[in-house]
Write a structure and sequence with these properties.
Largest sheet: 12 strands, parallel
Oligomer: single chain
Number of strands: 18
Number of helices: 0
Helix content: under 10%
Order of helices and strands: EEEEEEEEEEEEEEEEEE
Structural class: mainly beta
Length: 174
């Protein structure tokens, strides 16, 4: 896989040819967009803080080529990226979350035909903090804690999603 960590400070596109592995944390700076192509797989090391969106995360998959955000231990998507011949299994809370902050670019932020698996190290799979992303046609599965957490100042568009097998609430509003 293609290993990544740190800050994205210029527009980038991630493709479906190889899985991307976030080593510890990834921050998308304000004014910058990360575009993830249909069929791409993004994996997070165990305990990784996750993906913080201060700019834009454009993850626009399709029905036949969804985008997957999952654990490094999940060999079903992107193969045996940690090269351990299946010795480890993915589990709830392997990695933290996708976090949309207030500074994020609401009009661009999109999770469409996306699958989020095994997140919740901080008890949330996708967190929306004073932001308004669109989350549609997506699956959020096997989360430790809540699948999606919204704070009261958020105004997202959440349409046609399946949130299942979370250890707490599927959708939690604070």
């Amino acid at each position: 896989g293609i290993r990544n960590t740190g800050t994205i400070s210029f527009n980038q596109t991630w493709y479906a040819d190889l899985p991307y592995v976030i080593e510890s944390s990834m921050i998308i700076n304000s004014g910058v967009a990360l575009t993830v192509q249909p069929g791409a797989v993004v994996k997070f090391n165990k305990g990784a803080i996750g993906l913080t969106v201060n700019g834009a995360l454009v993850a626009n998959g399709t029905d036949t080529a969804p985008i997957t955000f999952t654990s490094i231990h999940d060999d079903m998507f992107g193969g045996d990226t940690n090269n351990n011949n299946g010795a480890t299994r993915a589990a709830r809370g392997d990695w933290d979350k996708i976090l949309y902050n207030d500074s994020s670019t609401d009009a661009q932020n999109l999770l469409n035909y996306v699958t989020v698996l095994y997140a919740g190290n901080g008890n949330i799979g996708v967190s929306v903090s004073s932001a308004s992303p669109t989350i549609s046609n997506s699956h959020i599965i096997h989360t430790k804690g809540s699948g999606i957490r919204l704070d009261i100042n958020s105004n997202p568009s959440i349409l046609n999603n399946v949130i299942e097998n979370s250890s707490q609430d599927g959708l939690y509003i604070t």
